[in-house]
Write a sequence for this structure.
């Protein structure tokens, strides 16, 4: 059974950088190849996809007797992208957009041919029980609205677009920009805000009542095509390719669709 460790981005990176530095200095090429077979699979994921990713890992582990330690780090797509450019030793990166994986491809940081769209995200507006109605009406009643920072997270960029199309600037509620969509969801869950733009998958995970959120028509914001890549300097780990193939399989795509995304099989 795979062992899964989920960590905050800063704490996890500190440990991983230390390990990567030591192995680079003390192992021969043959030893490195052997080590790649036994070392943990390191996955970085956009915050919106953390829980669906864990379900994919559990399913693969239980159905394929996958005996591998897997460490998952989550954060905003932009922040993880910067860490990879600086040498963060991830094997796989599940982004919340197609822009950053494409930039990594141009920088020759990924395994050729590994950039694939694994899901298309859906945006929703959650609101407290006392706020009802359609999108514009709910936004008009919001006093504090949270969403991920547009410069860091694709869901935040989509949220800003919807807000711009729905209300004049002078009618905006107080805006709170979170570091990522996971942080935005946490603020919603703790009722620190009365409205928030988040991923539909997050709302499904929390099992909120259908009256508590409004699905945003997908023609109101740019498509959130989420792509994954295998990091080039970490391609010696065969588990990375195996897991990427599982995610794109019919079974993997069905699990992703069930989690609240548009799968690529449809």
């Amino acid at each position: 059974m795979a062992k899964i460790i989920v960590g905050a981005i800063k704490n996890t990176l500190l440990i991983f950088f230390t390990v990567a530095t030591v192995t680079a200095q003390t192992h021969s090429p043959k030893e490195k190849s052997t080590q790649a077979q036994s070392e943990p699979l390191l996955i970085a994921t956009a915050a919106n996809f953390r829980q669906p990713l864990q379900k994919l890992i559990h399913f693969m582990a239980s159905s394929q007797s996958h005996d591998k330690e897997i460490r998952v780090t989550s954060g905003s797509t932009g922040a993880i992208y910067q860490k990879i450019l600086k040498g963060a030793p991830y094997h796989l990166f599940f982004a919340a957009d197609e822009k950053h994986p494409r930039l990594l491809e141009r920088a020759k940081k990924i395994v050729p041919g590994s950039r694939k769209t694994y899901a298309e995200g859906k945006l929703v507006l959650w609101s407290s029980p006392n706020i009802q109605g359609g999108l514009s009406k709910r936004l008009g009643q919001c006093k504090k609205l949270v969403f991920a920072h547009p410069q860091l997270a694709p869901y935040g960029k989509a949220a800003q677009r919807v807000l711009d199309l729905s209300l004049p600037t002078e009618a905006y509620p107080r805006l709170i920009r979170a570091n990522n969509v996971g942080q935005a969801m946490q603020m919603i869950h703790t009722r620190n805000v009365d409205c928030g733009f988040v991923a539909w998958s997050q709302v499904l995970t929390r099992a909120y009542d259908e009256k508590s959120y409004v699905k945003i028509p997908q023609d109101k914001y740019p498509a959130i095509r989420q792509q994954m890549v295998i990091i080039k300097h970490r391609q010696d780990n065969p588990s990375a390719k195996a897991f990427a193939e599982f995610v794109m399989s019919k079974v993997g795509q069905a699990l992703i669709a069930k989690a609240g995304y548009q799968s690529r099989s449809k």
In short: The chain has eleven helices and eleven strands. Residues 140 and 171 are 7 Å apart (CA to CA). The radius of gyration is 19 Å. Confidence is low (pLDDT under 50) at residues 6-27.
